[in-house]
Amino acid sequence: MNGDGIGDLAGIRSHLEYLHDLGVDAIWLSPWYPSPMADAGYDVADYRDIDPVFGTLAEAEALIAEAHAVGIRTIVDIVPNHTSTAHVWFAEALAGGPMRDRFYFRAGRDGRPPNNWESIFGGPAWTQVADDQWYLHLFDSGQPDLNWDHPAVRAEFDDILRFWFDRGVDGIRIDSAAMVAKDPALPDFDPLMPPDPHPWIDREALHELYRGWRRIADSYHPSRALIGEVWLPDPQRFVRYLRPDELHTAFNFDFLGCPWDAKALRRCIDETLTTHAAVGAPATWVLSNHDVTRHVTRYGRTDTGFSHDLRQARHQLPTDLALGTRRARAAALLTLALPGSVYVYQGEELGLPEVEDIAAADRQDPIFLRSAGTDPGRDGCRVPLPWSGSAPPYGFGGTGWLPQPDDWAERTVATQIADDQSMLNLYRRALRLRRALPGLGDGPSEWQDSADDVLAFDRPHGFTCVVNLSARPVAVPAGTVLIASTPIIDGVLPPDAAVWVSTAL
Ligand code: NOJ
After folding, report:
1. Is-catalytic flag, 446?
2. Would you state the pLDDT for residue 133?
């Protein structure tokens, strides 16, 4: 908004109407706190303030209130696994003394790190300080891990939660939620060990921690939500975080990583619905986020799934963006027809592809920096949105903090609003219908008897969604077509397309 090329709170406030017209119920803001930005703000120096590059605390309060006024709730991102090295606790800890106990400071082993753990961003998970001790950081060296066995850490975050709930936020997204507790012995990691207990993932102590957080959220209002970023391969263990007295909901990364394949999607949807029903939690549907390759790009490749391990191997593989876009349109209708909550990552509603040709000098992600440039990291999905105009910065204001491509004129909000067939208008229409049709966001879902490579399911009140993942056209069921991802001609749904049909209207 202020023209410095970095999104800010004033910019969001001036675009609340856009969000309202899009049809969202809530906005989730990635960390907005004072930060040296070693990891795009996920290195927090002060959990109770706003980084000046984004605005002020007063502006955050105004944003929360103004969003409420147009029916939009606000979700803030809390980062409990680590602080920033610029946090006052860490500065004090560096000087020595008891503050070190709030982090993991340890002596090395013969000049080497205290154990063999590796940073998720690449390189060792330990950095040595001036007096030769080492501190643990599962992510960047600018993100020292907090010791959650320390009562002061627990008390601090209870207070931080209250601080934001007191300011009217409706939900809290918990960063790296399954990694926060550690085996206090910090044993070497043995990849051949059984996964449970893992020394830093999915430890039992987390459940008691999140029960405490749930009590805090509930003490405000039953509608205040805790949303976990829980990456766990085992869905049974995943939903343990969603038991009635723990988190309300968590991002469905199995679905996000699932390839564009009917059988795989059906299996994932079934598993999601069954496991969530067992704990009484709503399912979530996620196609993209700020950590993964945008799905327009993924779906345009031979290998359409996502996994962090394969990001590097799949970078810049041949991509058919027209095909990816077609599938992304169908995927939007698939997710919005399923029971549960849907998370739309900014720019997904514009059909933005991954920007894969960002110059090394412009890249900011610590993954890129820590892998000496071998892993492209996540900058390609974080490029600022194009609002209007025919050249960068497309109305964003200033030179974007990550460079925008020269060929995004067709993807701007202004262009897409004017184009009835655009991705933006597809999202807007589908979100409006989802809100208007009774029982769509919640309630049962029944598969129809369809071919293996077609997903067809019924929802309450005569609603049917058909997604054609086969290579041949399929018949659109009888009824009124509510919306389709591609024009329906002669009652036929082409490959890589989806349709919503109602027999009640
Ligand atoms: C998960 C966040 O989504 C990601 O962006 C961040 O780098 C890590 N947690 C570390 O905070």
Report:
1. no
2. 98
Q: Which numbered atom of ligand 1 lies nearest the CA of 79?
A: 11
Query: Look-up: residue for tokens 């908004």?
Result: 1
- 198: CA distance to ligand 1 center in Å? 20
* Known catalytic membership, residue 229: yes
Q: Is the CB of 354 under 6 A from ligand 1?
A: no
pLDDT at 195 over 90: no
Contacts of 439 (CB under 8 A, 6+ apart): 459, 460, 461, 463
Q: pTM for the full model? A: 0.98
Evaluate: CB of 225 within 6 angstroms of ligand 1: no
State residue 1's pLDDT score.
80
Q: Which of 291, 297, 282 is nearest to 247 (CA)?
A: 282
Which residues is 285 bridged to in the sheet? Answer: 342
Residue 375 CB less than 6 A away from ligand 1: no
Q: How confident is the model at residue 3 (pLDDT cuts 50, 70, 90)?
A: very high
- Burial zone of 71 (CB within 10 Å; 0-12 exposed, 13-18 middle, 19+ buried): exposed
pLDDT of residue 505: 82
User: b/e map of 426-448 (b: 16 or more CB within 10 Å)?
Assistant: bbbbbbebbeebeebbeeebeee
Residue 105: in which H helix or E strand, if any?
A: strand 105-106
Q: What is the side-by-side strand order in the sheet with 446-447? A: 446-447, 454-459, 463-468, 497-502, 480-484
Q: Which residue has the tokens 């995943």?
A: 238
How do strand 446-447 and strand 454-459 relate by DSSP bridges? antiparallel
Selecting among 175, 202, 254, 349, the annotated active-site residue is: 175
Protein residue whose Cα sits closest to atom 10 of ligand 1: 42
The response to whether residue 175 sits with its C-beta less than 6 Å from ligand 1 reads yes
Name which of 331, 354, 352 is nearest 343 in CA terms.
331
Give the residue-averaged pLDDT of 235-246: 98
Amino acid sitting at position 362: D
Q: Measured from the CB, is residue 79 less than 6 Å from ligand 1? A: yes
Half-sphere exposure of 344 (CA within 13 A, CB side): 28
CA 208–ligand 1 middle distance (angstroms): 23
The percentage of the chain sitting over the pLDDT mark of 70, rounded to a whole number, equals: 100
CB atoms within 10 A of CB 147: 18
- Above 90 in pLDDT, residue 344? yes
Q: What is the pLDDT of residues 15-32, one digit of tens each?
A: 999 999 999 999 999 999
Choosing from 77, 202, 229, 354, the catalytic residue is 229
